[in-house]
Specification:
- The structure is a single chain.
- By secondary structure, the chain is an alpha/beta fold.
- It is built from 12 helices and 10 strands.
- The strands form 2 sheets. It has a 5-stranded parallel sheet, with helices on both faces. The chain has a 5-stranded antiparallel sheet with strand order 7-6-10-9-8.
- A hairpin with a 2-residue loop joins strand 8 and strand 9.
- The chain is elongated, with a radius of gyration of 25 Å.
- The two termini are 46 Å apart.
């Protein structure tokens, strides 16, 4: 095996196939192209090597004795340490149900047998580049202290997450491989709200006077959404709203809870006042913010609080 240095040294490919001829063909082609090549001849060995070496891409035979490629892919995608690795299936099964099964198991692509090395090399290069861009983006967000996650809305997979996002999720929900139910439900509701032209209240969870809030950032691919998390407490938010909009303490408190999706009845119960009093405070808030609706007032408050959080990060 050729040892390489520099940029190419990070391009590690794990080939998983129980056929020696396929292993030899692919190993030689990848080695000549400058990749570091690892091999496994069964599913259990593939899982072990993937966990230890964290390759840039896995070339995975779909049909093998014991653990087949579909099960290997599912296990790789279920583990946090390996779920980010692109999987390219190698298969002679071109019927649509097998192609669908490959993607359902977590495959990013597939090539058909008999294998054509130039095609395989092109697919590998494309997926390594794409995966590296995601990793670099995650690293950049980590460096700026951003709590950002990518969620596969269909099945709740956490495609990737920054270190701060992981700490916040563990603090509020405990260690988890998949998105916590509250986070997944919020993401699906926010997705539907965006399609309807509205906005989902940001509140995700509360704990000892502090709250975990969420907002959409972008869509990275089919059914994968970037969500930004942030933590805040009541008093800091109220002070921010008072200063930003020249509100009284009570007006800021009402606006604060309105921005978290609370109804007048909820706000009245929280603040110990009547719903009629809450409504009078809201009238003053609308005047000072120059808006006419609850949604518009909440949107302005959320935007100002997000800006304050970004400025302090």
């Amino acid at each position: 095996m050729t040892l390489v240095t520099g940029e190419r040294a990070r391009n590690v490919v794990l080939i998983v196939d129980d056929q020696p001829d396929n292993l030899s063909l692919l190993h030689d082609a990848l080695d000549d192209a400058g990749y570091t090549v690892l091999v496994a001849t069964d599913g259990e060995a593939a899982l072990q090597r993937a966990r230890l070496s964290l390759p840039d891409v896995v070339l995975l035979d779909a049909v093998m004795p014991g653990l087949d490629g579909f099960e290997v892919a599912r296990r790789l995608k279920a583990a946090f340490s390996t779920r980010h690795i692109p999987i390219v299936f190698m298969t002679g099964l071109t019927e649509s149900e097998h192609v669908v099964a490959a993607f359902a198991a977590g495959g990013a692509d597939y090539v058909t047998k008999p294998l054509r090395p130039p095609e395989v090399l092109a697919r590998i290069a494309a997926h390594i580049q794409s995966a590296r861009q995601i990793t670099q983006a995650s690293s950049a967000l980590d460096a700026f202290g951003q709590a950002t996650i990518a969620i596969a809305v269909r099945d709740g997979r956490l495609v990737w997450q920054t270190a701060l996002a992981r700490r916040l999720i563990e603090h509020y929900f405990g260690p988890c491989e998949l998105a916590p139910p509250a986070l997944l439900a919020w993401t699906r509701a926010a997705q539907a709200a965006r399609l309807a032209g509205s906005e989902q209240p940001p509140l995700l969870a509360t704990q000892q006077g502090r709250r975990l809030l969420a907002s959409f950032h972008d869509q990275t691919g089919d059914e994968e959404w970037l969500v930004v998390l942030r933590e805040e407490n009541d008093e800091a938010s109220i002070q921010t709203l008072m200063g930003a909009f020249r509100l009284t303490q009570r007006e800021a408190e009402v606006l604060h809870w309105l921005s978290l999706g609370k109804t007048n009845r909820d706000i009245a119960d929280i603040l110990g006042m009547s719903p009629r009093t809450v409504n009078k405070h809201l009238e003053h808030v609308f005047d000072k913010l120059a808006v006419e609706t609850r949604t518009a007032a909440a949107s302005l408050a959320i935007a100002r609080l997000r800006g304050a959080a970004s400025g302090s990060a």
